[in-house]
Amino acid sequence: MGKGLVEDLDWTDLWNEILLKAQKGQELTDAELARKAGVKIDDLRKLKNGVLDEKALFLVAQALSLSGEILLSMATGKCNPQPLTLPYFLKKISSEETPEKKSYLLMDKRSNKKFLIDPPNKRLIENYVHDREYGLDHVFLFSLEQIQELADGLKSFSLPFSAPSKEGQLERKEEWFGSFRVELIPLIDKIFYFVHPPESSPLVFVGKYFISGSISYEETGYYKTLELIRSTLFGFPDETIICPRIGPLSTVGFEKGHNPFFPEYQIYSSFQMLTEI
Fold it and tell me: Quick count: other Cβ atoms within 10 Å of Cβ 146?
């Protein structure tokens, strides 16, 4: 495998955890998966426990429609992605209550406006509203549940916000926030934000609906999640930076070349050998 782009060198999911995730998503028992892959059930269970058997891994990966080559590179440490540096106008934020979950502050130097993306609670909003250095001009939310959870805070501070439509409207919109051109991409009960910064690579903010090198399908469903990523994220330019709630930043090109859930894109990724934007 070639080199790619992620924010740090830690995988969100280990190779054997990806096998477990795909098996669970496809609702296969150990006996069903072993039969489909043509391996002994004991060998399958060893793989799931992190004991590498290359031949068995490729057979099980094929049965689950995963990339055996990518999983093997993860298992043997041969995939060494290069770190991705945060753009100067973007700040990652962690709260004390949920340090593994990230929010983002988008800072427009030209207009001196600040935009908070995916806040986990009212306290974080309040902190930035009263922060003399930053302040806050707009909030971006990803689900109807977030609107309900943060309604009091947004109302008390009279903060404008973007969020999915309660009516489930699916029409894309484009708005300007300072010098950032933002495409609002509605997906029934959730939303992605595709941001075009001036003189920089685009970014897409995806909330909890994607994690680098893997997928997150608990709310959307396994097959629907795969199709959602193919039809939305993988339609963006390869240099687009993916900003998820959990795990490191990545790029569309890196995910095409290194995400085992999408083997059909592996040979087409233009980021296979790139080490920097």
Answer: 21
